[in-house]
């Protein structure tokens, strides 16, 4: 099980490398000179914007048509080709084509990985493994920002080409590893391949790998009750089911909360344009900027792992509330410290410290849940389409970061942080009113949550019952 999960986690590394390598490369004079770009202009936004352009239909169709496993493989293979094109680009058109393919492949692989991991893990371990999947974003980020430090000191174009070429490393590991793992048992069952599904469940969840195991039989019973052989996942063109009932609309609404506030909490401002923020704080040396970018990756990764380890104890809802409140406070403090009316080297340095603390809080609360919570909330037949739609919603709101920030940063400077502070305050209210608790609940349990009259209260009751049940099971195991 551990080996399977680590192979899938490479898809999280894809996303981290892809997002961070552009931030690192964007600070290199060699890159700016070769393509005639500046560090914060509209053309730079276009380069970042290729990340998810046109990825919607492949991510909504392929996981249901060819399976979660093979759509991961296709996505990562596409990413490898894109990395080669960007790293060897001779003109801006070739570079954009490569960015298109890396964005397409990265998004397809990430969406497929979320669906796959949510469907092969047990309720007791789902939070930990899916949190780790999203935390691997920082493994890719560490590789990208760490590689950029020594290569950024070179005078040749290989200073920016090498990091872009190395982007294919996590993807290539997944391309090879996927050939040796099994398909999602829920996908197999939905395709009428019941015997294969039972064998996969026994292999992954039974200690003695017995198909007669009680846990395997219980899961098969839940499959029979909740997975339709004629569901909307068999009709690639049919997106109506995502919003057909009030329960499905509630589910997708929670996905949109993660998409919107996971994008507009201020994290995108820092992730993509950290070099610009450092310039505004008085740090002008590109080499030092890359070192600080690397430090940001380290601290964020540690925070994400900590949040992952606690997601099944604290609960998803409390983590989200903590993250959003902390982000609002962080944006307010940074705005005050970097304000033009009271600027000084000491205040600028303190402002940078709080930027890092902001990312620590964001990574602690949001990073473990960005892949986990939407995949838990969506019903099986809508999971692939819902995750694709969620990515699309996140991309739409991400256009504010991609195209708005290059224009706003030079004009608004520190006032930009106040805008994100207001967005975060609204997020606190929305999460408090609507977010349900999903920890320790099976994906089939969550069907009962969303069809109930009071989903939020029902989730609290079921989570409490699941917690008590797990305590009894643990005590029984200890006695045995």
TrEMBL record:
Q: Where are the transmembrane segments?
A: 39-58, 70-89, 95-117, 129-152, 164-181, 252-274, 294-312, 319-338, 350-369, 389-411, 417-436
In which domain of life is the source organism classified?
Answer: Eukaryota
Keyword match Transmembrane helix: yes
Q: Which GO terms describe its cellular component?
A: membrane
Q: Cite the entry's keywords alphabetically.
A: Membrane, Transmembrane, Transmembrane helix, Transport
- Which GO molecular-function terms appear in the entry? carbohydrate:proton symporter activity
Which InterPro entries does this UniProt record tie to the protein? Answer: MFS_dom, MFS_sugar_transport-like, MFS_Sugar_Transporters, MFS_trans_sf
Give residue ranges for domain Major facilitator superfamily (MFS) profile: 4-439
Query: How the protein sits in the membrane?
Result: Multi-pass membrane protein
The family assignment reads: Belongs to the major facilitator superfamily. Sugar transporter (TC 2.A.1.1) family.
Q: Which PROSITE patterns match?
A: MFS
Tell where it localizes.
Answer: Membrane
Native organism: Dioszegia hungarica
State whether keyword Transmembrane helix applies.
yes
Q: State the name under which the record lists this protein.
A: General substrate transporter
The principal location of this protein is membrane
